[in-house]
Predict the 3D structure of the following.
Amino acid sequence: MTRPFHLAFPVHDLAAARAFYGETLGCREGRSSDAWIDFDLYGHQIVAHLDPAAKPVAVSNPVDGHDVPVPHFGVVLSMPDWQALADRLTAAGTRFGIAPHLRFVGQPGEQATMFFYDPSGNALEFKAFADDAMIFAT
């Protein structure tokens, strides 16, 4: 079993982070304080830390015809879970930075991917592979 990762990241508004990660993404909330909130993101521990001055970094790199925001984080899901999340986000009116689609079609590493931002401007990518053997394909 792969061990869960831990990621701490800045947010400018804890209430907005709670609504986005808890309600929009469906993450179970763990411990919290006036300065941070733990969330269970598909079994991984992410922690939104309050930084009222937090400003997103606007850097991107070209990948398969799209400008991919850097930095970003997310989870590699199963294809059914990825589709369910894409449907959930679309129904919630989420504005995608890169809409759900397949990239590297017909190549090693073909994957479903989508990018979107939390209320503090943190970029998230969720992806899925029809064959998990392709996750590290070269």
Q: What stands out?
A: The chain is about 15% helix and 45% strand.
